[in-house]
Amino acid sequence: MHKILIVDDSEGLLVLYETLLSYEFPNVEVLIARNAIEALSQITNLENPSELLCVISDYDMGEINGVQLTRKIRKKLPLLPLFIHTHSGEDLTVIQQQCEDINVEVLSKRDSMKGIILPSIKNQLLADENFVLVATLI
Fold first, then answer.
1. Separation CA 111–CA 88 (nearest Å)
2. What is the pTM assigned to this prediction?
3. Is position 87 within any domain?
């Protein structure tokens, strides 16, 4: 089964994103992690890491930020689509510069889900000939 991992220290946003993604993609398991350590543990414990469609991570999460997390993930899964989303008040350009060498999409939380992330997930699912897309709202 395909999986999406969402990493955010905001319980409200985790619930929102999990609900949205579960509604948009009912045949995809949505995994949640409240910090980078939890996210890395979940990735390590996956039976089949190739089932992971993408990781959507918050930028500001305490001791390990989204850039540090995506660097660690990139070492294990070099082709996995990675997204860092952040509040619009934070400087996206500075975060993008920190990610230049690791191929990560940096987005504003306000704009990220509908505009970039959902279409990217949908395209990956459509590329898998064994997957049946049940709902499409994008």
1. 9
2. 0.81
3. yes
pLDDT in tens, 92-111: 777 777 777 888 887 777 66
Whole-Å CA distances, 42 to 21, 46, 106: 18, 6, 22
Q: For residue 58, count other CB atoms closer than 10 A to its CB.
A: 24
> Residue 58 contacts by C-beta under 8 Å, 6 or more apart in sequence?
7, 8, 9, 10, 13, 66, 84, 85, 86, 109
The DSSP result for 85-101, as a single string, is: EE-TTS-HHHHHHHTTT
What are the structure tokens assigned to 59, written together?
Answer: 């930028």
Q: Put the strands of the sheet holding 29-33 in their side by side order.
A: 29-33, 3-7, 52-58, 82-86, 105-108
Asked if residue 68 belongs to a domain, the reply is yes
Helix/strand/coil for 7: strand
- Into how many domains does the chain fold? 1
Q: In whole angstroms, give the CA distance from residue 92 to residue 121.
A: 22
In a domain, 133, yes or no: no
> Domain containing 82 — which CATH number?
3.40.50.2300
Q: In terms of residue numbers, what domain contains 18? A: 3-127
